[in-house]
Design a protein that fits this description.
The complex is a heterotrimer of chains A (339), B (467) and C (343).
Chain A: E1 18-31, E2 36-49, E3 53-57, H1 64-72, E4 79-84, E5 87-88, H2 94-103, E6 104-107, H3 121-131, H4 138-151, H5 157-161, H6 170-182, E7 188-192, H7 200-217, E8 220-225, H8 228-234, E9 237-242, E10 245-251, H9 252-257, H10 262-269, H11 312-316, E11 323-324, E12 330-331
Parallel strand pairs in A: 3-8, 3-9, 6-7, 7-8
Antiparallel strand pairs in A: 1-2, 1-4, 4-5, 9-10, 10-12, 11-12
Helix pairs in contact in A: 3-6, 4-6, 6-7
Chain B: H1 3-17, H2 21-43, H3 49-52, H4 56-59, E1 83-85, E2 89-94, E3 100-110, E4 118-123, E5 125-136, E6 142-152, E7 158-161, H5 162-165, H6 167-177, H7 192-196, E8 213-223, E9 229-230, E10 234-238, H8 254-290, H9 292-307, H10 310-320, H11 325-352, H12 355-363, H13 367-403, H14 414-423, H15 432-466
Antiparallel strand pairs in B: 1-10, 2-3, 3-8, 4-7, 4-10, 5-6, 5-8, 5-9
Chain C: E1 14-27, E2 30-43, E3 47-51, H1 58-65, E4 73-82, E5 85-86, H2 92-99, E6 104-107, H3 121-132, H4 140-153, H5 170-182, E7 188-192, H6 200-217, E8 220-225, H7 228-234, E9 237-242, E10 245-251, H8 252-256, H9 264-271, H10 311-315, E11 321-324, E12 327-329, H11 332-342
Parallel strand pairs in C: 3-8, 3-9, 6-7, 7-8
Antiparallel strand pairs in C: 1-2, 1-4, 4-5, 9-10, 10-12, 11-12
Classes of the chains: A alpha/beta (339), B alpha+beta (467), C alpha/beta (343).
Chain lengths: 339, 467, 343
C-alpha cells in the first residue's frame, strides 16, 4: 500500500515524524477447533506521528479493539509488522517486551473493570512503578503518584489516595486509569473507547483532560471509538475501519465533511444530532443490513454486498488498496470519482 | 503494605459475619475448643496423661470402667466417688532414742451407700520405715488396719492397697469389739471395707449398712534414724464412680483423654485443611492462568486423585507403613487439595479474563505477579470458607482410620478412644460414657467448623458475585 | 408542588397519568429517594422522551410504570393511572393479567443480550404469552399467527421464530425484543435505552422501525435514554430528570429548537453532546457528579453543580412551573428569565 503523506496538524519541532507504523497487519482467530478462521484484522496499515491523535472509528466487530490489543502487544499478530521508532517491535521477548510497555500504554474502555477491586488508588498507581522498578523507596514512589494524580486533577491527592476504585465515579476512575499509563511516561497511548461508559455530562471533561495532557507531554494517541462525533472533537486524523481494514483515512475535517467511501458516508448519515424537527421523518439510510461475520469476508471490495453503488467491477476485481485523493485523504473505493 | 487495608476489610467482613447467628455459635464453640486445646492439658485431673496415655501404671489407682461421678445423682444407692486425699494434718514426735514418729491424718467424709472399693496409700521416703495405718470411725471406734515395714525410695512411691492388706486386721478389729460377730468371719471371705465402713451389727458381714460420717485415716510412720525419711503420703480413695466422664476398662480417665484429644483434633484438622486448600487454590489458579500443558497435566492429576477412594487408600497405606499422624496428614493433604481445585480453577478462568488482569499485563506484569497480586487475593475469602468446610471431614477421617486401629500410637485422639471402646466391648458392657463423649466431640467440632464455613460462605458468596 | 395540567392541542386525552410519584429504595445504608415527587402525562399516540444521567431515576421510572420496582424499592406514594385505571396498590396477579404487556410493555435495557440462550425465539415469545395473557387467544394457531404477524412487522423473516438468540445479529435480537413487547398489543411501550448497545447504522435502522411502528399501530412510547440526540430524533416531548426529580419538560421544538432549553442542567447536557456536523473546539461539561440520593441537597438538587446558582437556589426548592404552553421547568433562574421576557 502507499504510505500516507499527510502532515500532522500539530506540527512543530520534534513532531511529525512517524513513531508507530503498522504494516499489513493480520490477526486471525481460530474458532470451532480451527474449522472457522475469523479474520479480525485483515491487512491493516497506518502510520502514527509523534504528537498526533489518530481516531480508529468503526462498528463493533470491525477489528478496532483487536488493533488496539495488537499495538499494545496483548496478542500476537498472525502476520505483518509493528514498527516503533523505526525498530521492529512485532515480536519481543523478555526485557525488550517489558521495555516496550514503558513506551506504549493503554487506557481501557471500562473504568469499572480495569482496576482490581481489591486495590486502592495508591496500589493501582504504584503497580506500574513496581513492575518497572521505578522509584527506589516508598516515599519516592508516593511522590510520583501524587504528581501524576495532580496532573489528572485528582486533587487533593490525599483524599483519593486511599480510596478503592468503587468509591469513585466513572469519570474519576478513568482519570486514574489515564494516570496509571502516564506514570510510566509513555510515548504512545492506546485509548480504547475511554469515555463510552462515562456519563455524558462528564465525558467532555475527560476528553479535555486527555487532550491537554497529550499536548503537554507531546504524546501520540490512538483513539479507538465507535462514536464518530467524539472522534471529530478529539482527533487529528480519522481512520474508518470496516471488517478488519481501513477504508478511509484523512484529517478529521476532511473525512467528516467530505467523506469519500460509501461506508463512511453511511456512518455519518446514521448519526443522530440534537436538533428539532426530525420526529416525523424517516432517516434515509444508504446501506442496508448489518456487518457480515469476519469469518466470511466477501471477495473483491469487502463492502460491496452492502454498497448501494456496487457494480460488477467491485466484486470481480481484487480488493482496492488505499489511494490518495489529494491532501493525504486516503480511501479504498474504486468508484469514488463516479459516486 | 496492605495491612491497614486488610484489617479494614476484615472488620467489614466481621460485621457481616456477626449477622449470621449459626456462624457466631460455631465461632464460640471453636473458641472454647481452642482455649481447651491450649490450656486444657494443664487443667485436666491427670496432667501427665499426654505422655502416659498408654502406660498402665500411670492409671493403676483409678477404678476400672467406672461411670462418671455425676451418675450418683441418679443412682438409688450412691457409690463412692474416686478422690485423692492430700494435705493431711502432719505431726512429728521426736523420741529420745532418735526415732521420730510421724503421723499424717486424713479426714474422709464418707456419705455413700457402698464402701470404697479400695484405699491406696502412696508413700515416698528413704530407707526401711515401719508404717501403721489406723482408721477412726464416726462411731468413735478406732481400727488398726495395716502394719508393716516398707522399704521406701525417694522417687518411686510405695503403693499399698489397703483393701488387699487389711482383711485380717479388720477381723481382729471386729473381734475386739464384739467377739461373737467375729466367730464365723474369715479373712479370706469377708469384704474388709464392707465391714470397716459399716455399722457393726449382726448383719455386718452379710448385709452391712453404711456408716456415714467423718472418718479419719491416720498413717503413722517411724523414722528409725535421721538417715531415714518419710515424705507426706497421699491417699487415693478408689470408688465406684470417677471424674467427669468416668474411666475406661484400662482405668484411664476419659475426660482427660477427651480434653487432650482436642489439641490433636485441631492440629490435624487445621493443618491439613490449610495445607490442602492452599495447595488446591494455587494449583487451580496456576492451571487456569497458564493453561496449555500445565492445565492438562494438573487436571489429569486432579481427576486421578479424585477418582481414588480416600478412605480405603488411607487404610491400606496406614496398614503398610507404621501408622504415624504425619503420614496421615501428608496423605490427606494429597487427597484434599482436589476439593478446592476445580472451583478455584473455574473462578480463576473467569478472573483471568477480567479487564484489570489485561490492564496489568499491559503495564508489564509477569505471570506470577498476576497470580499472586491479582487473582489470589480475590479467592482468599473462598479459601477460608473452603478450609473451614473441609475440617470436619478430615477429623472424621482421622477418627475412622483410628477406629480401625491404624492410628498413631504416640498421640491421643478421639478416634482412638472410640476404637479402644469398641474393641473392648464398651457397647456390650453398657459403658456408654466411654462411647458417647468422644463421638459427640467429633460431631461438635465438625459442626463448629461447618457452621463457621457456611456462615463465611453466605457472606462471601454475594461478594464474589457482585465483584 | 405546583402542577398545571398539560393542555396540548395535538393529543386528545392522556393515556398515562403520573401524579407525585415517590419510589424509594430501602437499602441498608438508608432510604434512596430514587423518584421524589414526579408528575407528568403521556398522551395517546405520543412519544415522551425521558432523559438524564445514569442514576437519575430513568429506569426506576420505567419499572414503576409497570408497578414492578426492583427490590428493595417500593412505591411510597403517588398515583399512576393507565387508561383511567389506577395501578398503584393493584395486586400482582391482576397486574400481570391486566396491565403488564396487556396495556404497557417494556423493552428492557440490554434485553437483547439477556435472551435465554437455550430457547428459540418462538419459545421465548410463548413464555411472554403464558406469563401475561393466558386469558386471550387460547388457540395455539392464533398465537402462532400473532407471533408471525409481529415478527414480520418488525422486519424479520419468518424463520427467525425457529432460531436461537446466538444465531441472530445484534440488530435482529433487538427486533425480536421489540416484537416480544408488541405482540400482546399493548398501547404503551416503555423503551429503556433500546439503541444504546447498537452500532450507529443499526441504531438508525431500529429508530426508523420504532417510528414506523408508532405511525402504523398508533402506539405511545416512553422513550428512556441518556442521549439527547436520540431523543431529538424520536420524542414529541422530552422530560429531563435530575436526581429523582423532573427538571424540565417541553416539546421537541422547545428543547432542541433555536430558543433552546431553559433549565441550566438541560442546557449543559445539550452543550456536552458532541456534534458531528459542526466543529467545536470546546465541549461543555458539568463539574462534579450527581448527588447521593440518600441525603440529596435540600432545595434545588442541581444547585451544587449549577453555574447560575444563587443563594435562593440553596434555600428554596423551585416548583415545577409552566413557563410557556406545554413547557414546564423547575428552576428559579428559568422562572425569572421567562418573567423578564414577558414583561
Amino acid at each position: 500500500m502507499s504510505s500516507p503523506e499527510t502532515k500532522g496538524p500539530g506540527e512543530g519541532p520534534g513532531r511529525g515524524e512517524v513513531i508507530l507504523e503498522l504494516r499489513a497487519l493480520h490477526k486471525n482467530f481460530l474458532m470451532h477447533r480451527g474449522r472457522t478462521v475469523i479474520k479480525a484484522v485483515d491487512g491493516l496499515s497506518f502510520q502514527l506521528r509523534r504528537g498526533e491523535i489518530l481516531g480508529l472509528v468503526g462498528e463493533s466487530g470491525c477489528g478496532k479493539t483487536t488493533t488496539g490489543k495488537l499495538v499494545m502487544k496483548l496478542i500476537e499478530p498472525t502476520s505483518g509488522s509493528i514498527i516503533v521508532n523505526g525498530d521492529d517491535a512485532t515480536r519481543l521477548r523478555g526485557a525488550q517486551a517489558i521495555a516496550y510497555r514503558r513506551r506504549v500504554q493503554m487506557v481501557f474502555q471500562d473504568p469499572y473493570a480495569s482496576m482490581n477491586p481489591h486495590f486502592k488508588i495508591r496500589d493501582v498507581l504504584e503497580e506500574p512503578l513496581l513492575i518497572h522498578r521505578i522509584g527506589a523507596t516508598k516515599l519516592e514512589r508516593t511522590a510520583m503518584i501524587s504528581e501524576v494524580m495532580r496532573r489528572v486533577k485528582m486533587v487533593p491527592v490525599e483524599d483519593y489516595m486511599d480510596r478503592h476504585p468503587h468509591m469513585l465515579s466513572g469519570g474519576q476512575r478513568q482519570r486514574i486509569a489515564t494516570a496509571r499509563t502516564l506514570i510510566l511516561r509513555p510515548e504512545i497511548i492506546v485509548a480504547d473507547e475511554p469515555v463510552s461508559m462515562i456519563d455524558l455530562s462528564t465525558r467532555a471533561e475527560i476528553l479535555h483532560l486527555m487532550k491537554a495532557i497529550q499536548r503537554d507531554m507531546s504524546l501520540s494517541f490512538i483513539y479507538i471509538t465507535h462514536d464518530i462525533s467524539t472522534a471529530r472533537f478529539f482527533t487529528d486524523r480519522i481512520a474508518v475501519m470496516y471488517l478488519g481494514r481501513i477504508v478511509e483515512l484523512g484529517s478529521q475535517d476532511e473525512v467528516i465533511d467530505h467523506p469519500i467511501h460509501p461506508y463512511t458516508r453511511a456512518l455519518i448519515e446514521a448519526v443522530c444530532e440534537p436538533v428539532s424537527g426530525r420526529v416525523g421523518l424517516m432517516r434515509e439510510l444508504p446501506i442496508k443490513g448489518e456487518v457480515p461475520s469476519a469469518a466470511s469476508i466477501p471477495a473483491g471490495c469487502r463492502f460491496h454486498p452492502r454498497c448501494p453503488y456496487a457494480k460488477s467491477e467491485c466484486w470481480e476485481l481484487p480488493e482496492p488498496e488505499l489511494e490518495d485523493s489529494g491532501a493525504g485523504h486516503l480511501h479504498a473505493c474504486r468508484r469514488w470519482r463516479e459516486i | 503494605m496492605n495491612l491497614k487495608d486488610t484489617t479494614e476489610s476484615l472488620r467489614d467482613s466481621w460485621r457481616e459475619f456477626a449477622k449470621v447467628k449459626s456462624g457466631l455459635f460455631g465461632l464460640a464453640i471453636l473458641g472454647a475448643f481452642l482455649l481447651l486445646g491450649i490450656f486444657g492439658v494443664y487443667l485436666v485431673p491427670f496432667p501427665g496423661a499426654t505422655e502416659h496415655w498408654r502406660d498402665i501404671n500411670f492409671w493403676q489407682d483409678n477404678p476400672q470402667a467406672a461411670p462418671p461421678a455425676w451418675t450418683n445423682l441418679f443412682a438409688a444407692r450412691k457409690g463412692v466417688s474416686s478422690t485423692v486425699l492430700a494435705n493431711p494434718k502432719a505431726g512429728t514426735e521426736n523420741q529420745d532414742n532418735g526415732v521420730a514418729v510421724r503421723t499424717f491424718s486424713f479426714d474422709y467424709d464418707f456419705g455413700a451407700d457402698e464402701p470404697p472399693r479400695d484405699i491406696i496409700v502412696r508413700l515416698t521416703g528413704d530407707g526401711p520405715v515401719p508404717v501403721i495405718i489406723t482408721v477412726d470411725r464416726p462411731d468413735s471406734l478406732s481400727a488398726e488396719i495395716y502394719r508393716a515395714q516398707l522399704d521406701l525410695s525417694p522417687l518411686s512411691p510405695a503403693r499399698v492397697s489397703l483393701v488387699r492388706n487389711s482383711a485380717q486386721a479388720i477381723v481382729e478389729f471386729v473381734r475386739s469389739q464384739d467377739p461373737e460377730l467375729a466367730t464365723n468371719m474369715s479373712a479370706d471371705l469377708i469384704k474388709p471395707f464392707g465391714i470397716l465402713f459399716s455399722k457393726l451389727g449382726k448383719e455386718v458381714a452379710t448385709a452391712p449398712t453404711a456408716l456415714k460420717g467423718k472418718y479419719r485415716i491416720v498413717v503413722t510412720a517411724l523414722q528409725l534414724s535421721s538417715d531415714f525419711k518419710v515424705n507426706t503420703p497421699s491417699l487415693i480413695v478408689s470408688g465406684h464412680v470417677s471424674g467427669i466422664l468416668g474411666t475406661d476398662s484400662s482405668k484411664r480417665d476419659i475426660f482427660t483423654g477427651i480434653v487432650i484429644g482436642i489439641r490433636w483434633a485441631l492440629i490435624i484438622g487445621i493443618l491439613t485443611s490449610v495445607v490442602s486448600v492452599i495447595a488446591g487454590v494455587l494449583l487451580g489458579i496456576i492451571a487456569a492462568y497458564f493453561g496449555g500443558a500445565v492445565d492438562w497435566m494438573l487436571t489429569r492429576l486432579y481427576e486421578l486423585i479424585y477418582l481414588l477412594p480416600v478412605l480405603p487408600f488411607l487404610i491400606v497405606v496406614s496398614a503398610i507403613f507404621k501408622p504415624s499422624i504425619w503420614t496421615f496428614i501428608t496423605l490427606v493433604c494429597l487427597f484434599f487439595w482436589t476439593g478446592s481445585y476445580k472451583t478455584v480453577y473455574s473462578m480463576a478462568l473467569q478472573i483471568k479474563e477480567e479487564t484489570f488482569v489485561e490492564a496489568s499485563k499491559a503495564l508489564g506484569s509477569g505471570s506470577w505477579r498476576i497470580v499472586f497480586r491479582h487473582i489470589s487475593p480475590i479467592l482468599l475469602p473462598y479459601s477460608f470458607a473452603s478450609m473451614a468446610l473441609s475440617i470436619p471431614a478430615i477429623i472424621v477421617y482421622e477418627a475412622s482410620v483410628s477406629l480401625l486401629g491404624l492410628g498413631d500410637a504416640s498421640i491421643v485422639s478421639w478416634g482412638q478412644i472410640l476404637e479402644s471402646a469398641l474393641s473392648q466391648g464398651a457397647v456390650i458392657n453398657n459403658l456408654w460414657w466411654w462411647v458417647i463423649p468422644p463421638g459427640l466431640m467429633i460431631a461438635l467440632m465438625g459442626m463448629s467448623f461447618a457452621f463457621l464455613g457456611t456462615a463465611l460462605d453466605k457472606i462471601l458468596h454475594p461478594k464474589l458475585k457482585t465483584r | 408542588m405546583m402542577m398545571s395540567e398539560t393542555k396540548n392541542p395535538g393529543y386528545k386525552q392522556p393515556l398515562l397519568k403520573v401524579r407525585d410519584l415517590r419510589l424509594h429504595y430501602f437499602t441498608s445504608k438508608g432510604e434512596v429517594l430514587a423518584l421524589d415527587g414526579v408528575s407528568f402525562d403521556l398522551m395517546a399516540g405520543e412519544t415522551l422522551g425521558l432523559v438524564g444521567e445514569s442514576g437519575c431515576g430513568k429506569t426506576t421510572m420505567g419499572l414503576a410504570l409497570l408497578n414492578m420496582p426492583s427490590p428493595p424499592g417500593r412505591i411510597v406514594s403517588g398515583s399512576i393511572t393507565i387508561d383511567g385505571k389506577e395501578i398503584v396498590g393493584m395486586g400482582d396477579r391482576e397486574l400481570r393479567r391486566e396491565v403488564r404487556w396487556a396495556k404497557v410493555s417494556m423493552v428492557f435495557q440490554g434485553a437483547m443480550n439477556c435472551l435465554t440462550p437455550v430457547y428459540t425465539v418462538r419459545k421465548l415469545m410463548l413464555e411472554t404469552w403464558q406469563e401475561h395473557a393466558s386469558g386471550k387467544h387460547p388457540d395455539p394457531k392464533a398465537v402462532e399467527e400473532l407471533m408471525l404477524r409481529y415478527t414480520r412487522r418488525v422486519g424479520l423473516p419468518d424463520h427467525v421464530l425457529g432460531r436461537y438468540p446466538h444465531e441472530l445479529s445484534g440488530g435482529m435480537k433487538q427486533r425480536v425484543v421489540i416484537a416480544m413487547a408488541l405482540f400482546l398489543e399493548p398501547r404503551l411501550i416503555i423503551m429503556d435505552e433500546p439503541t444504546t448497545a447498537l452500532d450507529v447504522i443499526v441504531q438508525a435502522q431500529i429508530l426508523n422501525l420504532i417510528k414506523e411502528l408508532r405511525r402504523d399501530l398508533g402506539l405511545s412510547y416512553l422513550f428512556i435514554t441518556h442521549d439527547l440526540a436520540t431523543e431529538a430524533e424520536v420524542a414529541d416531548r422530552i422530560m429531563v430528570m435530575y436526581a429523582g426529580k423532573m427538571a424540565e419538560l417541553g416539546t421537541n421544538e422547545q428543547i432542541f429548537g433555536s430558543r433552546g432549553p431553559r433549565h441550566p442542567y438541560t442546557q449543559k447536557l445539550l452543550a456536552s453532546t458532541p456534534l458531528l456536523r459542526k466543529k467545536v473546539s470546546e465541549l461543555a461539561f458539568i463539574p462534579g457528579s450527581p448527588p447521593d440520593l440518600i441525603s440529596p441537597p435540600p432545595a434545588c438538587r442541581f444547585e451544587p453543580r449549577c453555574a447560575f446558582a444563587k443563594a435562593k437556589c440553596g434555600r428554596l426548592e423551585p416548583p415545577v412551573v409552566e413557563i410557556e404552553s406545554g413547557h414546564q421547568v423547575a428552576c428559579w433562574k428559568a422562572m425569572e428569565d421567562s418573567e423578564y421576557e414577558l414583561s
